[in-house]
Design brief:
Layout lengths: L41 H8 L3 E2 L5 H5 L12 H4 L1 H13 L4 E3 L7 H4 L8 H17 L6 E6 L14 H18 L3 E7 L2 H11 L6 E5 L13 H8 L8 E6 L3 H15 L5 E5 L4 E4 L2 E4 L3 H14 L1 E6 L5 H13 L8 H8 L4 H7 L27
Parallel strand pairs: 1-10, 2-3, 3-4, 4-5, 5-6, 6-7, 7-10
Antiparallel strand pairs: 8-9
Helix pairs in contact: 4-6, 6-7, 7-8, 9-10, 10-11, 10-13, 10-14, 11-12
Length: about 400
């Protein structure tokens, strides 16, 4: 975190010329030299000096295009194929990104265990940070590096087996390695449960960097664990430390992300920095591969709408290439901010919005109010009738 430089001053007092002082052999205690000020944080500097920032695009889907196979761990490429990770970061910087995320989304010991790499947390995360830092530092402008930290993939107590302490320790281990590698901010993304958000923030806080947290509201206007934008607003106020920015990423398309940003802005107020990092349209299975149907033109429109809806940091998630990001940058540079878009405008220009998000937009925050037609919300209603 940035620190303000302290001003050192002395107060002069008038001395009586006739006053004499007895000699003394005591040593005079000297004021300690001020500690050198910590270097300013690039991420916070950018936030303070710019009305909006452009975050980067997708990691995984772009790496698939250069050889990553389904089921492989992208984090291993920080060591095995660093030139491909560097090239991806470079493409985003050249497209205009102000923030690039490290290739470390699955960098906790729990996710790396799936690839027998749980003992390589420090190596892989430090490598991810170092590669992004090198690209940012030679960009010729101020580019912040965000340490990507995704979910553990485990279900936390009380529903699942993962305890708060173990989750916090896993996130702290990853955060230390990212910080040592040179990131400016820790970026918790695609979170879905309250318990994991709290544990992740607690772990990230151990290194003293700013923290960003985004949730994926991909289940009828809520996360898959039931958190709504309004719930997230209440949760954020209880976090220690408070977040430098928060918002939404991934999800089910650009229209849903813009509607979510509107709902977050309504719940959180103007003092909170909001992040929109939506997928590039809707995924489709074409010729044996997952493709996203979002065009550069659609993503440019999404970027402008997200800004007007209340986001200050705007980027892309799955499917977003450097070409999409360049269109977003050009659109934002040329855009004159306006009023928050109406719901029907979002739907007509970006696509349909879920029943839950529509209900939240109208002020209805209950599960029942935003339930899809035919949804069964009561556990008791799922029970089979007793045998007769």
């Amino acid at each position: 975190m940035p620190t303000t430089t302290g001003w050192w001053c002395s107060r002069m007092t008038s001395l009586d010329p006739s006053q004499t002082f007895a000699p003394t052999n005591q040593k005079i205690a000297m004021s300690p030299e001020p500690s050198p000020a910590a270097p300013p944080n690039r991420f916070l500097n950018l936030l303070a000096s710019r009305p909006w920032l452009l975050a980067d695009g997708a990691t995984g889907s772009n790496l698939f295009d250069v050889g990553l196979l389904s089921g492989d761990a992208p984090e291993l490429w920080n060591i095995d194929h660093p030139e491909r990770i560097t090239a991806l970061h470079q493409s985003f910087v050249e497209a205009g990104a102000d923030i690039i995320l490290t290739n470390s989304f699955g960098g906790t010991s729990y996710r790396l265990k799936l690839h027998q790499a749980q003992s390589r947390v420090a190596e892989l995360n430090h490598g991810a940070a170092r590669l992004a830092r090198q690209v940012a530092d030679r960009s010729g402008r101020e580019v912040a590096v965000a340490g990507s930290m995704g979910p553990t993939g485990e279900i936390m107590e009380p529903i699942g087996p993962l305890s708060f302490d173990l989750a916090r320790q896993a996130f702290a281990e990853q955060a230390r390695s990212l910080a040592d590698g040179g990131v400016d901010v820790l970026w918790l993304e695609t979170m879905s449960s309250k318990e994991e958000v709290v544990a992740a923030v607690a772990g990230a806080a151990t290194v003293g960097l700013p923290i960003v947290c985004t949730l994926s509201f991909d289940t009828n206007g809520r996360t898959m664990m039931g958190i709504s934008p309004s719930d997230f607003a209440g949760l954020e106020k209880t976090l220690i430390p408070r977040l430098a920015a928060c918002g939404t990423n991934c999800g089910v398309g650009a229209s849903e992300v813009v509607a979510c940003i509107h709902n977050l802005a309504e719940a959180m107020g103007p003092e909170v920095v909001l992040v929109a990092k939506g997928n590039c349209g809707i995924p489709q299975y074409v010729d044996g591969a997952i493709c996203y149907n979002g065009t550069p033109e659609l993503m440019a429109l999404y970027a402008k709408m997200a800004l007007d809806a209340g986001a200050r940091i705007i980027g892309g998630c799955c499917g977003t290439s450097a070409k999409h990001l360049r269109a977003m940058r050009d659109a934002l540079d040329a855009h004159t901010p306006g009023a928050s878009p109406e719901l029907q405008t979002i739907i007509s220009q970006l696509g349909e919005v879920s029943t839950g998000a529509r209900a939240q937009w109208a002020g209805e925050q209950s599960r029942l109010g935003g339930a899809a037609p035919g949804a069964v919300l009561s556990r008791s209603s799922r029970r089979r009738p007793a045998a007769t």
